[in-house]
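TL;DR need structure tokens for one chain.
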Amino acid sequence: MLRQTLCIYFVFALISVIPQSSFASSMDAMQVACVQLEMNQDINNNAQAIVKALKSESQRGTRLVVFPEGALTPHVKLIRQLDQKQIDQALNSIRQACRQFDIYAVVGSAYKHDGKWYNGAFVIGPKGQIVKRYTKLHVVLPKLYENGNELAIFNIDDVPTTIIICHDERYPELVRIPVLAGAKLCIYISCESKILKKLDNCRSQIIARAVENQISVIHCNAGDGDGDIGSYGRSRIIDRVGTVLAQADSKVGQTIRATVHPRDSRNGYARAGARTPSLQKFWAEGLRVLKEQNPEFFAKNTVSETETR
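>> reply
TL;DR here they are.
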């Protein structure tokens, strides 16, 4: 009897120390966090701060950590002094951390391609892989950045997700088209203008993106920092009916977190709108372009109308 008891105790003790694998599903519940990073002109310091936040959030059970637009490369002056190799090295340190801590990260960073600069968001997975590189479609600094030209849909675990950057918020079709394809979560990173009269403007727009699409939105904005990296913060996590589950104030260095429930997301409004006779061709063409630009998602995902009601 004693031997059997010891054997059972040994088995349970062994199970308790075996590292847990990545979450099989995040559809029912996913803990997410937004970090209003205190950014500076040293790209390596920014990367280290991101890694530190990932470690801390992994210990809290967070699955997805979102950082602001330009979190890695915040200063306009800084970008002109960088080369892509430096950015890649900093991103690699973040990728290693995601793999080490088994966590997803979304990091805003400039990147250079074919001699041109772009304003990007890098979605990094728990194996250290680049899940998606999204490029801001509507830039406000045309002398610095080129416009992107691709919509985005990808998976966070098994949750179809889309992403937009700052001024993209003003173009609701960038979210609506992925929602038609089954997206249940939207990530929005920004460094919104430090103009007080635009506070309500920006807040109402991103809550509208949640309500009109019936999905949760994770919004990470830059905090009220120095010079050209300043913004008004107020990062927020919003559920599908527009309830703000968590919100920061304006200061840098804050983290907010909440649990979202992607399975509760709906796309009934999107589908009803797409059936409007005069708009059917418009939305059909949007879906065709989305599929063309995201073949890796559609190769792995078959989304039926009953699954995305």
